[in-house]
Amino acid sequence: MRRRNSLYIFTIPALLVLALFFIHPVLLTLDMSFTSYKGIGEAKDVGWRNYDRIFSRERYYSEIWLTLWYTVIVVTALTILGLFFAAMLHRLPLIRNFARAALYTPAMMSFVVVGYVWQFLYSPLNGGINVALRDLGLGALEQNWLGDPALAIYSVAFTQIWMFTGFTCAIFLAGFAGIPEEINEAGRLEGANSWQRFRYLELPLLGPAITVSVTLTTIGTLRTFELPFILTKGGPDGATRLLSIEIIDNLFGQYKFGFASALSIIMLIIVLTVAFVQNKILRDREDVS
């Protein structure tokens, strides 16, 4: 009993940090969300008016839906591509370290650098993508990648997918490293080809890695701000105006601290709900596997 109590004592610093830098700010944000605070002066209590405004206007529902759809696109692509590259590199040990470093390099770059580089590549006039298509004789495929409302959200999503594929690949490679070689050897002795070993032997054992990858990428994508802001600033015509951009615009553009706080609480609830449900489903899948 004494040993157990001493172990609890070691959690106190972590709990203090959590309370100081997470719980306390959340409580302050929640309190501010019931005010009309402008950043200066007195914070006047307005009750549920900020939340009523959010749930009574169609634009905020559209932004929430767009944020969720953007997250589905990015997380699905990152999971599939990361798993694909990890499976390939797991079978190619001679180039594994070099390829892993090359894939992970974009994730170490600044959002600002990546955003401006891809903004140039997407340029409709002399951007790298349209020039390449023109040189390949595929001029008919040229697009206004960031200026077309139907394409803009997918262009932004592609940039984030390109940036973080190496991150998910690294997680899955760690999962592959934890699979005993005896299992693959048994599969070979039974005559299973590479795809069959991956599908029936390796994939079920990658459950924990899939849970970690999907959870981290989902949380990160739900609250993403930098790339959509740098590439499109929420345009064109609101086609990439995610909930995070709406929060920042109200906070620093219009100085509506109270309303921005209410939007932040809504985002926090969405992130926690999605992460909890997702983690529950993935953990249950691990138990079944």
UniProtKB/TrEMBL annotation:
The chain crosses the membrane at residues 7-27, 68-89, 101-121, 151-179, 200-222, 257-277. It is a multi-pass membrane protein. It is found in: Cell membrane. The keyword Protein biosynthesis does not apply. Belongs to the binding-protein-dependent transport system permease family. PANTHER family: BLR7065 PROTEIN, SPERMIDINE_PUTRESCINE TRANSPORT SYSTEM PERMEASE PROTEIN. This is Raffinose/stachyose/melibiose transport system permease protein. It comes from Epibacterium ulvae. The lineage of its organism: Bacteria, Pseudomonadati, Pseudomonadota, Alphaproteobacteria, Rhodobacterales.
